Amino acid sequence: MPVDLQEILDDVHEAVRPLIGSGSVADYIPRLAAVNPDHFGISVMMTDGTQCSSGDADVEFSIQSISKVFSLALVIAGDGDEIWQRVDREPSGAAFNSLAQLEYKRGIPRNPFMNAGALVVADHLLSLTPDADDPVLDFVRTESGNPDISIDALTAASELAHADRNSSIAHLLRSFGNLINDVDAVLDRYVRQCSIAMSCADLAAAGAFLARRGESADGRLLLSGNQTKRMNAVMLTSGFYDAAGEFAYRVGLPGKSGVGGGILAVVPDVCSICVWGPGLDSSGNSLIGMAALDELTSRTGWSIF
Ligand SMILES: NC(=O)CC[C@H](N)C(=O)O
């Protein structure tokens, strides 16, 4: 760990302080619209297990699409490359909830991180683990070492009550034969994984296997080094929807955002980072989170480029 990492994180916090509260919280899920926008947190988990944080790093928030990283890791750990028969791995250049490409791609989503792809991954995971309640929740509890992490039932209910778009995507997928399980069962699993509430500190810890070439928190090999390389590549090209280019330009790391305002980023072989600020930019990515990672990577030289 850089000797002065704590100082660097505090400096980053100071540098982005004027942005606290800017952007707009997601409003298409009423429960998320009620979140206080005046938060900022950052946490870094080094591959040697040391962790440093600043700001509201222990405050829980809705992980939303960051959960798509964990569900993809679980299906790859489950049956390897099978998922790539059902989902492409190309940047979409489209909004996270876009339906447009699905029709002319005959039901094959562009990548596993836009909602269409994540629904196929959720379906695949449901087939692999039909008896589990919430495999993604079990996974983040184990990897973060925090057994108290839970699903925010109000967020899940709020999203399910406003799921017309995801429901349309799921039905369209099913019409092309690319959704095997019942639409409601898949939507339920998907919404529950998105509604997991975690802090920056927990998320940085839970995502650290991606910085450790696939090694889980207890030393098992969850993914091979090669599978981890490929996961990180898909995060770099598709983790930020139509702002993937902007994130690569400003930050230069694999990462995944969520509409709860969190971003998980990975510096392979060095650390995993989680930042959180609920205000989003027009692409649905945390405005202050993007700025903080820009500052952090500029100060540390942590970029894959
Ligand atoms: N980008 C996101 O975080 C979106 C996740 C959200 N649960 C949705 O499906 O709309």
TrEMBL record:
It holds the Pfam family Glutaminase. Keywords: Acetylation, Hydrolase. It catalyses: L-glutamine + H2O = L-glutamate + NH4(+). GO terms for biological process: glutamate biosynthetic process; L-glutamine catabolic process. Substrate binds at residues 65, 115, 159, 166, 190, 241, 259. It comes from the Bacteria. One of its GO terms (molecular function) is glutaminase activity. Its EC number is 3.5.1.2. It is an enzyme of class 3 (hydrolase). Coiled coil: none annotated. PANTHER family: GLUTAMINASE (PTHR12544). HAMAP family: Glutaminase. NCBIfam families: Gln_ase, PRK00971.1-1, PRK00971.1-2. Homotetramer. Belongs to the glutaminase family. This is Glutaminase. It comes from Leucobacter chromiiresistens.
